[in-house]
Amino acid sequence: MDARLQLAFNQIQDARSYTLPMLDDLAPEDWFRMPAEGVTHLAWQVGHLAMAEFRLCLERLRGLEPGDRDLVSKDFLRLFSKGTTPEAKPGDYPPIEEIRGTFDRVHAAVLREVPAYAGDDLDTPLANPHPIFKTKLEALFFASKHEMLHAGQIGLLRRLFGKAPIR
């Protein structure tokens, strides 16, 4: 594997390893809870991470493939996309098991596909560049940074729920 691809891949794994322990001891009723002073909930954060990891690490890297809708539906992508406003209404969202399942499935696909990626076009400019990244490799590096940003929000929610910090 290309050394830069390996570094990006390792950072994606490290970010997920940081996030997972913060989810393990939270009760289902906490997933849609929005503290009065808050603007988000755990379900949106986890769904958003699944959506973003799919878009950054799979779609931007290799394009859409026929089995992708088995990983994450179009409705799921829309529901958790950038710019959506989290609502404290569980009925507006998929069940927690589906959100967590999508989160885990997308990450498993990234763990499977990124190391197998040839890597000969990592510096190719993206057809739809982002203000923060312009190439496939930069999108992969951004994926871990993005997850850490949202891990911080999950950590804050945990504290507002009275949970002890994990880190």
Description:
The protein has 167 residues and is mainly alpha-helical. The chain has a single domain, classed as Four Helix Bundle (Hemerythrin (Met), subunit A) (Up-down Bundle). It is built from six helices and no strands. The chain is globular and about 50 Å long. The mean pLDDT is 91.
Please state roughly what percent of the residues sit in beta strands, choosing from under 5%, 5-15%, 15-25%, 25-35%, 35-45% or over 45%.
Answer: under 5%
Largest sheet: none
Helix content: 55-70%
Rg on CA atoms, Å: 16 Å
- Please state the oligomeric state of the protein chains shown: single chain
Query: What CATH architecture do you see?
Result: Up-down Bundle
Distance, first to last CA: 31 Å
- Following the backbone from N to C, one meets helices and strands in this order, namely HHHHHH
Number of domains: 1
Mean pLDDT: 91
Shape: globular
Structural class: mainly alpha
CATH topology: Four Helix Bundle (Hemerythrin (Met), subunit A)
Q: Which regions have little confidence, pLDDT < 50, spanning 5+ residues? A: none
Strand runs, count: 0
CATH class: Mainly Alpha
How many helix segments? Answer: 6
